[in-house]
């Protein structure tokens, strides 16, 4: 297992320079990681998309904003790989869904966030990148080693963002101008300082899939949960002391079903645990309590095919950040480590 020190990298420079640095750091390991990831993820790609993640990757890459094209180009250059190979890694995600469980909760006047990210290929996750691009807000992101995009991160302005997949309703027309949710998240972290700026970006940039977006403005001590379609968004109960979410709309009743770890059942268990925590007269430690909740067998995914691959607990206001690496499912069996705030 790679050590904590090997799992955190700090990169400074233009997007291309950051890509070259990361590619050189990875070397041949990047190609091996892509092959492993594709092997474990490809079976989940719907039949209609079989092979599309290979054939359409380069065209997809050229539809992205230049900032992200340049980082992919640098990554390929630094690792000595064909650009198309690296693009396939990013494009595969747009064809797939995932499962996640999260909570935002106010404890002793501080806003905390707890997050499980459920995917395949758990050994490839549990990495942290600190990126500083000139003219943009520096960020900390969590995911796979070498990731250009992310589903979870925080920026130097103490703005925390992460998202969950939502199943699409009746098909909305999607064009190449619609950005993947994981690209939107990086763009928001690198350009936004407040919830108002996140909302403005949601108005301006259409996304390729629906999502639940969890947001904490640590500077203003505000939080929000947004349900987002491709071209619209709406906030849910901004004034509440806590919010939870899994993989269905807050507008849909969370009726339990036969699958023990379905979105509805995880939601019900998460709600129960968070309500109990908020009512508790003397929590031992916000971080420890939230870590315990994420590792609950009724919340954490422990399937053979898909499990919790990484987990986070954070107080964005104070810059307290915890993440897991090694061991899976990650929340209960991974090694929790506190990351020092770098700014």
Describe, in plain words, how this protein is organized in 3D.
With 343 residues, this protein is of the alpha+beta class. The protein folds into two domains: 8-94, no CATH class; 97-339, Penicillin V Acylase, Chain A. It has helices at 4-7, 15-26, 28-41, 52-55, 57-61, 66-79, 83-92, 181-191, 195-204, 263-279, 286-294, 330-333; strands spanning 8-12, 99-107, 110-119, 125-132, 139-144, 152-155, 159-165, 211-217, 222-228, 233-235, 242-245, 307-315, 320-325, 335-339. The protein has an eight-stranded mixed β-sheet with strand order 1-4-5-6-7-8-9-10. A six-stranded antiparallel β-sheet has the order 11-2-3-12-13-14. The radius of gyration is 19 Å and the shape is globular.
**Helix-strand sequence:** HEHHHHHHEEEEEEHHEEEEHHEEHE
Low-confidence stretches: none
The fraction of residues assigned to DSSP E strands is 25-35%
Strand neighbour order, sheet with most strands: 1-4-5-6-7-8-9-10
Average pLDDT confidence is: 90
Number of strands: 14
Write the layout of secondary structure elements.
Blueprint: H1 4-7, E1 8-12, H2 15-26, H3 28-41, H4 52-55, H5 57-61, H6 66-79, H7 83-92, E2 99-107, E3 110-119, E4 125-132, E5 139-144, E6 152-155, E7 159-165, H8 181-191, H9 195-204, E8 211-217, E9 222-228, E10 233-235, E11 242-245, H10 263-279, H11 286-294, E12 307-315, E13 320-325, H12 330-333, E14 335-339
Parallel strand pairs: 1-4
Antiparallel strand pairs: 2-3, 2-11, 3-12, 4-5, 5-6, 6-7, 7-8, 8-9, 9-10, 12-13, 13-14
